[in-house]
Design a protein that fits this description.
The protein has about 425 residues and is an alpha/beta fold. Helix content is about 40%, strand content about 15%.
């Protein structure tokens, strides 16, 4: 089976998609082995192999990050015009030359939607779309008029022509239906790596880098971790973007975090100057903040740690006490799944689309308002160390049971086969 996948950027500029889509494709190209004996036991024979080409656009981080996709074949196309739209004139011809059996589009509102439609008109072959939360109500309201224009000029046709639309969760499936789309929908979540519980290292020891991940030196986090010794850390990890609810988090934090016991670490890459706004807001609210490394003598209440990838990100996840995502809108956030995989309790909004976390008591439910975040912080601060550890352990169990790569890739392979004429729809597919 030959497939091609389209993504806005093949670098860290894709945000959470860089992690989730990259790891998905690395797991998809991993050879499958099935038992050849009638008993269902070995010896094993190699099962079907998927050849995947990933196409994205080139940006300032492409050369640094493209090696993280290995062994997946990746092609970065030059962009003309505004970076946000990602107009890559050679996209359709590149797809035609690759001649895939099907195409999988990750994300909306970019030129890839137009390019795959043109490829479809030429080839008459099927494609799948993964919106990754970009049809959720909050996402549609953000830059509303641009999206309305895009919807009527190309995106509605792009979505309605897809052989299948992949939803990450039930609420995203409902958002797809609410948009008036009647395509078959498959519900397949993001997967997550489950680190060994013994992976945590002693502070100051060299970080262990995986063979395929972005620039991941842990040198930048060692001094930060050392400066946080003796304090409890609430970690926000992700894009610094308005939809993440960080303004209200800073306001709530300034109201309640009056002691030196806790520190809020905001680790992520700035988008459109939002970090500057947060720093100004922290100053306005009277919350002491610092960049990179807090002063040990007069510790800051909030630390803006900058982007964290690879070993540095894992080190911060291992060091933190809890994680928070006060988001207004998400598809299925990798930040929460990664925190749970490291056995960390989480504060999350219902918009994170992980109700099982609340049901299994692996997360503290918060809303995106200042008061709701403040109430969640009070619960966190009052919780004993033992109860937080137990909450984190339940989160790890949620990940192990529901988000293992073996289940995710098996379901997606079955949908690919069905799209190519492979009989009845798999169990994860529903017709609308």
């Amino acid at each position: 089976m030959r497939t091609a996948s389209l993504i806005g950027s093949v670098s860290r500029l894709s945000g959470g998609l860089f992690e989730s889509v990259r790891r998905l494709h690395q797991e998809l190209v991993r050879p499958l082995y099935t038992p050849s004996g009638s008993s269902g036991e070995g010896p094993y024979e190699k099962d079907e192999h998927i050849h995947i080409s990933v196409l994205g656009t080139r940006d300032e981080f492409t050369d640094e990050d493209i090696g993280a996709w290995q062994p997946v074949e990746v092609q970065a196309l030059e962009v003309c015009g505004p970076r946000a739209f990602g107009f890559a004139p050679g996209l359709t011809n590149r797809l035609t030359n690759l001649d895939p059996d099907l195409v999988h589009v990750h994300g909306l509102w970019q030129y890839s939607s137009v390019g795959v439609l043109r490829w479809r008109q030429r080839s008459r072959k099927p494609y799948m779309v993964s919106p990754h939360g970009m049809l959720d109500p909050w996402a549609l309201r953000h830059a509303r008029w641009k999206k309305r224009f895009g919807w009527f000029t190309y995106e509605r046709k792009h979505l309605s022509s897809a052989a299948c639309i992949r939803a990450l969760c039930e609420s995203e499936a409902q958002a797809i239906k609410a948009a008036g789309l009647r395509n078959p929908i498959c519900i397949i979540p993001n997967g997550v790596d489950l680190p060994e519980l013994g992976e945590a290292r002693q502070a100051g020891a060299p970080g262990k880098q995986k063979p395929s991940e972005p620039n991941s030196s842990s040198a930048g986090v060692d001094e930060l971790v050392e400066s946080l010794a003796g304090r409890k850390v609430l970690l926000y990890l992700g894009r610094i973007h308005p939809k993440k609810g960080l303004c209200n988090l800073v306001k709530a934090w300034a109201r309640i975090a009056s002691s030196d016991e806790w520190v809020l670490v905001i680790a992520g890459w700035d988008q459109r100057g939002h970090e500057k706004k947060l720093k100004g807001l922290a100053t306005e609210c009277g919350a002491a903040w610092e960049d990179k490394v807090p002063c040990i003598i007069n510790p800051a209440s909030i630390v803006f740690a900058g982007p964290m990838f690879g070993a540095a990100k894992r080190e911060l996840l291992m060091r933190c006490t809890a994680s928070i995502l006060p988001s207004y809108s998400e598809g299925l956030p990798m930040a929460v799944l990664e925190a749970w995989s490291h056995s960390k309790p989480v504060l999350a909004t219902a918009q994170c689309n992980l109700p099982e976390g609340f049901a299994q008591r692996a997360a503290i439910r918060i809303g995106p308002t200042v008061t709701e975040i403040e109430n969640g912080l009070r619960i966190l601060f009052k919780a004993s160390d033992t109860s937080l550890q137990e909450m984190g352990a339940r989160g790890r169990e949620v990940v192990a049971q529901r988000y293992a790569w073996s289940k995710v890739t098996s379901d997606l392979r079955s949908v690919y086969r069905w799209m190519l004429g492979g009989g009845a729809p798999p169990d994860c597919v529903r017709s609308t």
